[in-house]
Amino acid sequence: MNGARAITLSVRELAEFSARTGDLHGARTAGPSNLEGIRGHQQVQGQRGADWQAEFSLKATVEHQPYRVLLKGRADLVNEIASPPIIEEIKTSYFPPERLPESSKALHLAQARLYAWLYGIQQDFPGEQPIASRVSWHNLVENRTYSDTSIDNFSELAQHGIELLERYLAWHKLVEQRREAMHDAARSLTFPHGKFRPGQREFAAAVFRSCRDRGALLVEAPTGTGKTISALFPAIKAMGAGHVEQAVYLTAKNSGRIAARDAIDSMSASKSLDFLVIQAKDQTCPCRLPETASSCLDAEGTCVRTLGFFDRLPEARIDCLQAGQLTPDNLRQIADRHGICPFELGLQLLRWWPIIVCDFNYFFDPLVALTGLEENPGTRALLIDEAHNLPDRARDMHSALLDARAAQQLARELEPDFPEAARIVKRVASSVNRLPAQEAPETIPDALIKRIEEAIIALANPELAIVPGQHSLIEDERPRRLAEWSRELLRFVTIAQLLDKNFYASIREEKRKKTIAIQCLDPSGQLARRYRNARATIGFSATLLPLDFYRQTMGLPQDTGCTSLPPAFSPENQLTLRCDYIDTRWQQRDASLPELARTIEAVYRARAGKYLVFFPSYQYLQSVCDFFSGAYPDIATAVQQRNSSPEEREAYLNQFFEHSGALLGFAIMGGVYGEGVDFLGDALTGAIVVGAGMPQPDETRKQMQRHFNDAGLDGYAFAFQYPGFTRVLQAAGRVIRSESDRGVVVLVDPRFRQPAYRQLIPRQWQVCACTARQQLQGYLSAFWAQSAHD
């Protein structure tokens, strides 16, 4: 067929799209890990005789106007000698077949029949030739295999295959039409802000080249560069040029998601740039929201929006395609019309939408990484916003904890109404308590892993007596806490399989109760594996010093392009003072309180306004705040509280944004106010940064230091100095957020005068060293007098 458009499609993709029906929960039960699945497959394959061929490659080109589809895959087992020949698909499971949903079994059989169809095409079988399609479910718990076989002639298999293919191609055609319109828009797209800011054109050009040439890029772009638009604009242009098919914008915070949405809106006046924003499940699903949960959950605690999900998905998918631009609100409205889960609806659209905006964890976390972002490797650009957050976030994603004391407490809470669940939890706690206390075991004991896997299986059993008598599941928090604990078990098992030199495990005892922890020391290897799915990987932030430290800890290749852009705003707008006369180190903190308080007061009184004082810990913050409030009761203060609620955080910020009076705020470096907040205009006059921001020297940080030393790197710098100084830079970066902002940054710590720190301080800061408070006051007076004159 001349002029036919070529498509390459895997058998699994086709089956998942066209043959899946029924409920959602059957598709989301906790299943075996990849490693367990591989071992189960190999075990079944190894039990077969010489007549069986494993991993049998199958592919065929199917003409279906206007497409030429290359359909391919690997059958797990093929027996060509049998009569009829047998094409077999192996599925590993924690459950026997009678406990698997019928819709899942039907999906597995549909996949096997597709393989059988391809086999018949390859063998040029006549229509009446029979072929056996077999599915074998290998139960990992029982170590038994159950099989089901369907015998069809080749013409019946062809009819089945064509029906599924037509279903897929009808959708693909609609997507293709929408994508062509977007590519046309991308090709004609012009930079939305007219002219580029300093460094912005260089940034955008580097992103485009990375997309074109399959590269990695790390960009330190100071505040005001316009990082979001500088990354998204060239990625979309690269889409129009055919270099990439999808741009995935990964954010560390909600503010990054909002900035990405605003940037797309600024480029998309015609609504031609389709995007999908994935929001956290707890913020998206009606069954997770207090105001709507009662209307979603049935008597057994199942969300009714999951029932028949895949039966209603096709029409909802069409509505989404027509909408094109899918915010969480838009997605929720469409899901409401079709009575399905909005979060899962978004996941079903991932591979089809050209621009995806989501949190880091949906790409990097091994437990929640979205499979839709793994398909079609080598076709997408990863845009990693606030990239300085990724190493620490990735460490958390790849760490796990199992606390026997917490498990026993959960069991006590469950016991009155959920005795079977309580028994399962107790067994896991007992297994943990039986382990000998030790540091750095090379592996997690197999017996513990087996006990945890048994618990995961048992807790996923729909027949488990979890309905609490007269209690309402909506009002009773225990089932939710049990579900969370079950997810913690799954994370522990998943992370335990990754244990190597980049992790540190420990089994510790306190009051005869054991805790087993697996801490990721260096996530770079895990991150590097994830980048393999991308054509281009671009990380950017205002604070990436030193660049090589972030390149290594982010797992980026050695040939990554590393660029520091010039400041977007005049250096004269910021006065940076270094207080060399106050020793804030641990031993001197109490003695330095009076002089620190006088220095804070001097900065505040030099010009009435709003200031933030940042501290490395809550304890230090509170001691300074108490002393200061007693010494200067006339100065209004706001204090960041530990574990504050969203409402409390909003009230704290409103004092800076919505009130005109002068204010002194006390906050934590690296906390919610230390980065990601734009204090524009009069919202912030200055920041006083007390301390070098270094993490607490707990056992994990000490192990990180040893790990990097063993790798031939500066362990102290990698584990403490660089991460701490990033917090300093972020806190200081709250002050100058626009061209018209003027303000002061005061650094209070003797370490800032050391060469190791001075070489990290941005050149444009033009730091003024102060050996006494009177010198500091002189600099402040001159700066504010010049500001008034300007």
TrEMBL record:
InterPro entries: ATP-dep_Helicase_C, DinG/Rad3-like, Helic_SF1/SF2_ATP-bd_DinG/Rad3, Helicase-like_DEXD_c2, P-loop_NTPase, PDDEXK-like_dom_sf, RAD3-like_helicase_DEAD, XPD_DNA_FeS. The keyword ATP-binding applies. Keywords: 4Fe-4S, ATP-binding, DNA damage, DNA repair, DNA-binding, Helicase, Hydrolase, Iron, Iron-sulfur, Isomerase, Metal-binding, Nucleotide-binding. It comes from the Bacteria. GO terms for molecular function: helicase activity. The keyword 4Fe-4S applies. Residues 186-447 form the Helicase ATP-binding domain. Belongs to the helicase family. DinG subfamily. PANTHER family: DNA REPAIR DEAD HELICASE RAD3/XP-D SUBFAMILY MEMBER, REGULATOR OF TELOMERE ELONGATION HELICASE 1. This is ATP-dependent DNA helicase. It comes from Biformimicrobium ophioploci.
